[in-house]
Amino acid sequence: MGIPYKKITLLSLVVSTHIFSHEVSRLHPEEKKRIKALDLVEINRHTNNFKSNKNIHPMMKSQILYLMSKGDQVGALRKYRQYFKKTGQHNYKLLREMSLAIIEQAVSWGEEEDTLLSLIAMEIAQEDSFTHHLGKLIHSKYYPVQAKTLSLLRRIDNEYSEMLIKSCLSSQFIMLRLEALSILVQKHNESALGQVEALMNMVHHFYHPMFVDFYALAGTKYAISVMKQMISNKNLNLNLATILAARNYRIEEMIPNLRHSLTHTSPIIQEAAAVALGSFSDSYSLSRLKTLSTSSHEETKLAALLALYSMDQKDYKDEIINLAKNGNLFAISSLASLDNTRRALHEIYYSDDNNLRINSALSMLEKKNPLSIPVIKDLITLDSNVFYIEVVNSPGKCFRALRLKPLSSLEKKEMIPMVKSHTVMIQNQILSKTIDLPRDKFMKIIDDIFLKKRNTLIPTAIALLENFDDDESKAYLSKKATMPGAPFIRTACHLSLWKSTKKKQHKEAITSWIKQFGKHEMISIQQKSTDKDSKKNQISEYELSLEEKSHLLIQAFLNISYSREKAGLDCILEAMINGHEKNRIPLAGVLLKTIQ
Fold this sequence. Notes:
Elements: H1 10-23, H2 29-49, H3 57-69, H4 73-87, H5 92-109, H6 112-125, H7 131-137, H8 143-154, H9 159-167, H10 174-186, H11 192-202, H12 212-218, H13 221-230, H14 236-248, H15 255-261, H16 267-279, H17 286-292, H18 298-310, H19 317-325, H20 329-334, H21 342-349, H22 354-366, H23 373-380, E1 387-393, E2 400-406, H24 416-433, H25 439-451, H26 458-468, H27 471-480, H28 487-501, H29 504-517, H30 546-563, H31 566-578, H32 584-595
Antiparallel strand pairs: 1-2
Helix pairs in contact: 1-3, 1-5, 2-3, 3-4, 3-5, 4-31, 5-6, 5-32, 6-8, 6-32, 8-10, 10-11, 10-12, 12-13, 14-16, 15-16, 16-18, 17-18, 18-19, 21-22, 22-23, 23-25, 26-28, 27-28, 28-29, 28-30, 29-30, 30-31, 30-32, 31-32
């Protein structure tokens, strides 16, 4: 006897999924054919059950849910498309059940990649119905799964989510325990500090500096009393972390302890304490700061000079400028915060030393000086296959500067992907600051990015242009939407223009691109290796790299979902049927978001 339509619940879909996906895949081909034939017989039974009913729609819905329960997601989606053609309208309730089933099946498979994709789908959908899954996944044996689950729980504010976050304190991964503690402290959980102390006492003292911010975040009388003990601890790194936290979280109760730190024997502690007291404008420290301004350690001296300058001791500016002219990168970076340093920055800018020029240009950019544009352009558009940008911190971690280094100088070649990614992040940060330059100067930088086809910067460049929200920006993007040999740029421009104008030609261009590249995996969880000697893995300038296509596909589908148009829904369904099978899971989240 066939299964009545009303009895096919979402629970039954999930229960039968594991059998279909894993057990059947291991059978002999002939056995698979037999099972497929039996499935067809079962579907026919459903059909016979509805022969007496003139309305074929319930029968089709029953078939769709049956196929989904067997794990035949593509078959169910195709059957739904037939259902849509017959009815002429979408069944949002049915689409929701199918989307939930796809996500729940991915969770039930238990594979790391599928589970992560299901979590991404949950994040896109932003529904409360997935909380029970998070309760299971927070105890996953995979670190990335636990980390992503914890990230989603952070956004949910109820007792159950807080209980799940607490359960993560027993995770085998120390970094996840720390993250869970951070969340609980920020939520002002009553037992959070006790948990912090318990974990801190369990780990080696080397890790103790990582706990200081928890006490600073709490900000209670007890927490501050603990920080006062930490700042006088023999562990130099713990001292430093406490001083930095006192400054960053503006804990004025720590000022007397900071004054005492100025007399510390370590120049690292002196540097941090001087900067902290300068931020509090503590006039009681003037005498000691003046003594430190003659220190033989340049960063300690710089910290004292800047603290004095911040307390209206303007005569010390010349000494800061002298440090900068003598090549101290941290002093050059500090000139951005001082008045009337234009001439000094210009002098350093024309130095033969690249690192001096770069840091002076960055300080000039902070002051919105367009003279910095040539160096800024070169820094932003440098070839990341040849050079990388290194962030240099002062010993007391109070000052920062940048250095340009050849990629070939890296001793550990496995570090190359990470430093290249970090370089791109810094370039985008610098690019974001150029929007404060005069419009015509800013557009020169944008032009250079488009001309050199620096695709890693294109999303930020377009976002900055969108901020103007004027005809000039739209005209510029319209022109670049026809740029030859640059599919990433063209599609990104069409996407931006469609969001702002909703014109048909832009949506058609995006839809066409989705159909062309929809078989590409949207989100790659595992790092893929490439064979430089293999011609099929080589990428020409007319093709798109994996990361670029991923970015565009995700943005295109999300914006299609936000439009809530029938054509957009059809596009998502088409991609779920004929696109990459791994895309089906995050697209189920997009579909849920669309029909909300």
